[in-house]
Amino acid sequence: MKKPSRNLLLAGFVTGIFLMSCPVWLYFLFDQGMLGFFHEWLAEPDTFAVLQKLISLSYVFLAVGAVLGTLCGVMVFRTIAADWEKFKAATKVRESEEKYRLLFSTESDAIMLFDRQTLKVVEINESGLSLYGYGREEIQKKKLSEFFAVPPSFGKGGENMDDLSGETLHLTKSGEEIPVEISTGRFVAGDKDYLCLIVKDIRQRRQLEEAVLNISNEERHRIGHDLHDGLGQELSAASLMAKALENKLRRKSLPEAEELKSLITQINNSISTTRAIAHGLAPVSIEKYGLRAALDKLLTGLEAQTGVTCDLDWPEEIAIDNPTTATHLFRIIQEAVNNAIKHSGTSLITISFERSDSPATILRISDNGKGLDPATEDGSPKGLGMKSLQYRASRLGGRVEIVSGKDQGLTVICHFQNT
């Protein structure tokens, strides 16, 4: 049933009041002699009976007016109360919208809304316009994939659209590639489905990380060279002096010569360990000899020290010429291989490079060790080493995944942009 309008209710309320007041007004007019015909009428024989009927009728007017006025009045006041509640709710909504609009417009990070059907920009804040260098009308013609240096694959039906979180490279209007960190969210407003991207410009953070990484690399090289040219040379000199003393003792046929021989063996083992540590800290010059030569040196040394077989599968069509890319990949492989040797009980490690369907290249480091137990671990190794792998992969515009199972070995998969 349709609710009566407020005007109709007000009309009913006024009518009820009027009906209630009719007897009073009639009595007042009659009492003041303003209705002369009533006086003449009173002189007629049946006047008393008629008056009784009028009095009865006035009671009816009074009762009907009271009921009608009360009902309409109650409904009017209920309508006013409901409208007041709606007004307060609408006021709260407006205040909330104003707060969110203020937050949206003043947020220092870029915030973009995309229509999940068309993948076009629906809304963007001022920080986003400043970051990408577009005007508002220009950017609303852009699709989501146009902001990525390497367009992501959303899969059939866009099921991977919510997996964009993380660090990647975005393109500005001028074509500049900028490192950004993305957080994604999804919300529905009415019949519209939106994807929200919060984009943080991490160029300054990357510069700071690069500076820290350069300092770390310089310290690695310094310590490596100090071990090789300092401690290593001193141990070699001690070994030569001990060897000369051993020969002198043997010429005199003294039994201490055998004991000295054992000491020389220990010194030579220490020399080998020192050289291995030095080469790990300061490997063969990647800029001068390339990544493959550095990996061959690293894996040969590890096989000799640990007895673990290390295989390298590197297709000829994959060339890694960028020294920065090569250095990051060397450290990723070094960290993953050392972890496998220390913790997995492996006897075989395989390092392989391969092309993927996307523009990225894939590096795999696999072992046949004990792996991770999903029942007791969350499937991802923790610690500084893993963070280092993730960081170095992100510097290459990629990511690191861990695939493992109990007694099924462990595989580190690194997707990276080979530029």
Report on this structure.
With 419 residues, the protein is α+β, with helices and mostly antiparallel strands. The chain has four domains: 99 residues; 92 residues, Beta-Lactamase (2-Layer Sandwich), CATH 3.30.450; 80 residues; 131 residues, Histidine kinase-like ATPase, C-terminal domain (Heat Shock Protein 90), CATH 3.30.565.10. Helices cover 55% and strands 17% of the residues. The chain contains eleven helices and ten strands. Strands 2-1-5-4-3 form a five-stranded antiparallel beta sheet. A hairpin with a 5-residue loop joins β3 and β4. α1 packs antiparallel against α3 and α6 packs antiparallel against α7. The longest helix is centred in the N-terminal third of the chain and has 60 residues. The chain is elongated and about 155 Å long.
How many H/I helices? Answer: 11
Largest sheet: 5 strands, antiparallel
Order of helices and strands: HHHEEHHEEEHHHHEHEEHEE
Please indicate the count of domains: 4
Low-confidence segments, ≥5 residues, pLDDT <50? Answer: 375-379
Distance between the termini: 71 Å
Number of strands: 10
Shape from CA axes? elongated
Under CATH, the topology of the largest domain can be stated as Heat Shock Protein 90
Q: What structural category do the secondary elements indicate?
A: alpha+beta
Organism: Geitlerinema calcuttense NRMC-F 0142
InterPro entries: HATPase_C_sf (IPR036890), HATPase_dom (IPR003594), His_kinase_dom (IPR005467), PAS (IPR000014), PAS-like_dom_sf (IPR035965), Sensor_HK_TwoCompSys (IPR050482), Sig_transdc_His_kin_sub3_dim/P (IPR011712)
GO molecular function: kinase activity
Keywords: ATP-binding, Kinase, Membrane, Nucleotide-binding, Phosphoprotein, Transferase, Transmembrane, Transmembrane helix, Two-component regulatory system
